[in-house]
Amino acid sequence: MSIVSTLALPCGGADAILCTTGGRGLVEGEGWWDGVRTAASVLGTAPQDTAPHRAALQYSQQRARRALSSAILGPAPHLRLPKHQPPQLKSSPTPPANTLGPPRSPPQREMEVVPYGKNFRLVPEDELPELLDYLSQHLPQSLKFQQTLRTFLTDRVWDFYFYVTKDWPQEPVVLHFPGITHPPNGLLYESFSVFCPDDRLDALQLLQTEDVLIDWTRPLYLNFTPQVILERMREFYEQIGEIETVEGDVYISVQEPPPLQETELPPEVELRQLRRVDAKTIHDLYPARDMECLEAFEKCIATLPAYGIFAKEDEDDGEKKTLAAWMVQSYYGAMFSMQTLPEFRRKGYGIFLAKRLTADVRKRGYVPFVVIRPENAASQSLYLKLGFEKLYQTVRAVLKPFSEIQTDETQSSSAKWCHDVPALGATTIEINHQENGKIECNLEIKNGELA
Description:
Elements: E1 2-10, E2 17-19, H1 32-43, H2 51-54, H3 61-73, E3 120-122, H4 128-136, H5 143-155, E4 161-165, E5 174-177, E6 191-195, H6 205-208, E7 220-226, H7 227-237, E8 241-253, E9 269-273, H8 279-284, H9 294-303, E10 306-315, E11 318-329, E12 335-340, H10 349-363, E13 369-372, H11 377-385, E14 388-401, H12 402-412, E15 430-433, E16 438-446, E17 449-450
Parallel strand pairs: 6-7
Antiparallel strand pairs: 1-2, 1-16, 3-4, 4-5, 5-6, 7-14, 8-13, 8-14, 9-10, 10-11, 11-12, 15-16, 16-17
């Protein structure tokens, strides 16, 4: 009689499935540890202390995987999984999103605010107008940060928390959390934006030693930040990890756009303010939707200028209006997400929307600006025609520590190794670390012995 036993460990999964020789069958969720002990006892490697592992839902994914593989295989020194350190921010920690165990809902957005970091302090609301005045003195370099604060004070589009150095303004570094509206784990301090005057970039050293507000051992996400600031940050971060970047050139309106003529639109379309119901269509086609959430689009549309051009289409039961092109003012003040569906392009809808939104943004007291990818020649040409001028380059970045990079490489590699089990005679167990994120352990048992 031959029995085949297979252990499948989903690396980021909602459950662990274990078929064992002990007749336990399928073991799911929190019961996986009992199944592991059954298989381990066959191999003569049963762990002694199960209590810590029964709380695996509170362990990081990497620690749980290491515990399982060690129980079955013994140590595998060449398979190095980085040991995660707990974040030093202890405000209201959210459990890791990718833990073993039964299915779970996404983590809730962390909202408990830390008043003091190591080098920074939270700015109380009554001091925010003073901070806005300071940022206004450093336009246009501070433009994105300055208008994020302005939309916060004026329109409350999103909940931001602004920090300055404890020696402000002698050390003129200012931060806000979150930096994006859709960080992967939904944590308040997982992303941030930073501004520092060009002539005081040396003060950015305070970021390097900030270990309360910023957990440098985990991935961090920066929204568009002046390139000179990111390059200074790179000088110390290259000792910690790698930075993935997307460049964007800032174009600012330096003169009034040409007057808007409603007759520029053909009769088969109409222009109107967008509504919340339109947000999902726009968000689904937004290139950076992994960093900005649907709720942010809904709030921008409900609060700030946002226009769409709707095409009228005749149907048997009446007239249908299809959203053909759109443009929205963002929570950081920029005019963004200008898109036209392919079937409606080359009709002048884009330049019409840009004229209308530029006029409205200026009327509301904001500085009209856009962030354009360097390779997007069409958008560059459009805004130059409307009196915009390129000023400087910004960078959107993901800061990934080496430990995370090594984990990713381990998960995507294909590796095999063997492990002797003296108690059951000379034999080997083949382990496949597959690209689909599973560790598979296959062993064959004949007459109570491993073949």
